[in-house]
Structures are given as C-alpha cells and as structure tokens.
Amino acid sequence: MTPSLLQRVAAGEPGAVQGVLDQYGGLVWSLARRFSANQTDAEDAVQEIFLDVWKSAARFDPTVAGEATFVSMIARRRLIDRNRRSGRRPGAEAIHEGSAFDPPDAERAAQVSDDAGRAARAFKELSQEQQRVLRLSIFHGLSHEKISAATGLPLGTVKTHARRGLIRIREVLESDSVSAKETVS
Amino acid sequence: MSALTREQHDRLNDLLADRALQGLSGAEAAECDALIARLAALPAGGDDPESIDRVVAALQVAMEPDDAQPMPAHLRRSVEARARREQNAPAPAIVGQIRPARSGGVSPWWVAAAAVIGVLVGGWPRGASTGAPSIAAVAGARDVVRASWQTAGELQSVQVSGEAVWSSERQAGYMRFAGLPVNDPAVEQYQLWIFDPSQPEATPIDGGVFNIASTGDVVVPIDPKLKVSGPTLFALTIEKPGGVVVSDRKRLVLVCKPT
C-alpha cells in the first residue's frame, strides 16, 4: 500500500511537507481565518497547527480516519484552545459569512475525503434543526449560547440537537465501517 | 469498576460533544476524563472517546467551501522553514537529573519518565517508533500552553533559549532549555515554580528540583507537587541542594508567561 502523505512526513521523506501543505494548506488557512480575530492571529494559529501536524504525523492511522479529518481535528483543537485562552469566540455576525444553512455537498466532500463524504451524507439525514445547530457550531464556530440566541431555541434544546446529531452520524459511520469490513472478509 | 448509569453515559456524551464543538473548562475536562477512565476500565471498554471529535472534524472538511483560498505565500514559506528546523533538530539529550524536592535520592520512576520523554521529544516523529504516549501527545493536548523562557537576574546577559510546555488536562509537561548553565548539585540546584490561580502568589506550586549537566538542548519533565489548573507563570530559581519549600526569589533566573 502506498504510504499516505502524513506517513511520509513521519518517515522524514523529502517533499512530504510540501505535499501536506499543497493538500491541506487551504483547509487549515480557511479554518484559521474563520476562527481567528485577525490576520496575524490566523497566521500564528496556522504555524501552531502545522507544528502539531508534523509532531503528530506518526500517530496517523489511515484505518481510523482520513488524512483531511486528522488534520482538521488537530486544527480545530488548536483553534478552540487558542480561543478559550483568549476568551474569544466567533460572534453571531459570522453567520453572514457564506451560506449558513446549506447542507454540505456529499459528492464534493467525498472527493476530498471518504469519511467527509460519508459524514456529509449522514448529516443530510438529520432533522433540519439538528443540521442548523451543527452547521452554526462547526462551520461558524458559534457557542451553544450564541446559537440559542441566534435561533431562538432554548439552550438545552441546542445542546440536545448537537449531541444527538453527532451521535447519529457516528452510528452511521460505524455501521458503514462494519459493513465495509464484512464485505472485505 | 461498575458500568456507567444512563445519566452518566448521557453526561459523557454531552461532554464529548462539547469538547469537540467548543472545548471544555478545566473542571469539565477532569469530569470527562474520569468518566472515560471508568468506561475504559470495563471489560468491554467503551466508545472510542475521540470518535465524536472525528465526526466533527469530518463534517468540518465536508462543510468547507470549494473556493478556499490558499494560504499566503509568505506564511507557507514560514511554515516550511519551521518544518525544516524541526526535522533537522537533533534529538535533545536528557541530562537533567530529576528528583523530587527534598527527597533523598533519584526516583527510578523519574529516570524512566525522563528517558521516555527524551526519546519521544525529538521534535520530529521518526517512523513508527513514536506511537506510544509522548511529548507529542502532550503538545497535541487541546489545552496545551507553551511559552518561551526569558532570562532574569544573574542570567540576564546569558543566552538561554527554550520553552515550558504544559497541559492541565493531562497534568503533564516539560521544559526545554539550550544554554542554561551547568550547576554543581553539591552546591545548588535549579527549582521550578508554577504560578497558578489555585495558589496564592506568595506560595506558587513547586515544579521540581533538577540539575543541568550540559548547555546543549535539554528536556526536563515538569514535576508539580500539587494539581495545576492553569499556569499563569513559570519561574526558575537557583536554590540550595534539595530545593526549598518557599523561595526567597533572590536567585530568580528564568521566567516565562503563557499567553
């Protein structure tokens, strides 16, 4: 099996870092800009994220998640951590950046990453309210409190939609994974 | 170990969802870790505690617009340069002898921990040898704080570099030094102090006593004697052998303040 970009980074292979930046630089930059207060903050965040990516590359397991998901997970953790430390979170004004309520395009997502495509398909099966809450939270980075204020939903309902929606998608992904293993065997 | 009640299971799922979506406070993270530990101790184990994080990350990828802009060229050059530095950095030597303050001898546990950390903190993961828990895992912790050392007092004019890295969630961290003068353990030792909201400023947390045997790149694990909830300042003093309970701070030599 051909080693993935992150596995090549972990092995210290020349050109692997450039490959990761070609493939995921735009994703990380996009996330950092949306979750950061300004350009300088976003650039600092990108530096920290990729440092984490290089140091974590050896932990990447392609049987558990796709590379884009792995990089996105590291990026989100770092950005959430930075925002918690600074006491900053994206505000409700962020909702106006882009289309807040469009469901993700599963076919396009699948081209980037298989698990992103499957997650997008499972997302579309959620209730409209669950989709709305998760999109505001994940894409726009709003806190539960701000989602409650922006949507008029009670805070408890926002939390329940988020939890149940994520658990439902996890169930679908795990079920897909079991089916795939049974097909192989 | 008993199974979680339905309420505890729901609470864990709430915490895992919150962790993935917006992060947790220190108290929530501790509660989450405790519930995960209880589940993990059961014969059947539990759901992978990172599974919700992966769902959110996969959705994040799916939601990204097609027309994402590439990162600016100057930023990319900077990221590449830093990657090269990490890749070429020699593995740091573990030469700091770690021992708890005021104890009689070197703890084998600490020697082992220092050795593990020394192997794994080499900056750049090399092959599959870095799969175990490691400094990289501490650095990847969601609440990790890091700050660069600044010299003070008698080391004001000495070139010392490095950083302190800490995760309150994991209660683990390390210090990295280059250029810190070698000490004579029979005469004096370095002692770390951690300023934390849980303690009065006059009595910061003792972070451990250690020796430096090389001015090269050195990594020393942090050894707090109390739980650290959110360090606001790390300070290094030189003290008598064995360290002290409360420092007079007359020989404060390094400080770093997490941002």
Quick overview of this protein structure:
The complex is a heterodimer of chains A (185) and B (259). Chain A has nine helices and no strands.
Layout: helices, strands, pairs:
The complex is a heterodimer of chains A (185) and B (259).
Chain A: H1 5-10, H2 16-35, H3 39-56, H4 67-86, H5 106-112, H6 114-124, H7 128-138, H8 144-151, H9 155-184
Chain B: H1 6-22, H2 26-40, H3 51-63, H4 73-88, E1 98-99, H5 108-120, H6 135-139, E2 145-148, E3 150-151, E4 161-167, E5 172-178, E6 189-195, E7 205-210, E8 218-221, E9 233-239, E10 252-256
Antiparallel strand pairs in B: 1-7, 2-4, 3-10, 4-5, 5-8, 6-7, 6-9, 9-10
Helix pairs in contact in B: 1-2, 1-3
Explain this structure to me?
The complex is a heterodimer of chains A (185) and B (259). Chain A has helices spanning 5-10, 16-35, 39-56, 67-86, 106-112, 114-124, 128-138, 144-151, 155-184. Chain A is mainly alpha-helical and 185 residues long. Chain A folds into two domains: 1-88, RNA polymerase sigma factor, region 2, helix turn helix motif (Rna Polymerase Sigma Factor, Chain: A, Orthogonal Bundle), CATH 1.10.1740; 91-185, Arc Repressor Mutant, subunit A (Orthogonal Bundle), CATH 1.10.10.10. The longest helix of chain A has 30 residues, at 155-184. Chain A starts with a helix and ends with a helix. The radius of gyration of chain B is 21 Å and the shape is globular. With 259 residues, chain B is α+β, with helices and mostly antiparallel strands. In chain B, the strands form two sheets. Chain B has a six-stranded antiparallel sheet with strand order 1-7-6-9-10-3, with helices on one face. Chain B has two domains: 6-63, no CATH class; 90-256, no CATH class. In chain B, helix 1 packs across helix 2 (26-40) and helix 1 (6-22) packs parallel to helix 3. The chains are: A mainly alpha (185), B alpha+beta (259). Chains A and B meet through helix 2, helix 3, helix 4, helix 5 and helix 6 of A and helix 1, helix 3, helix 4 and helix 6 of B.
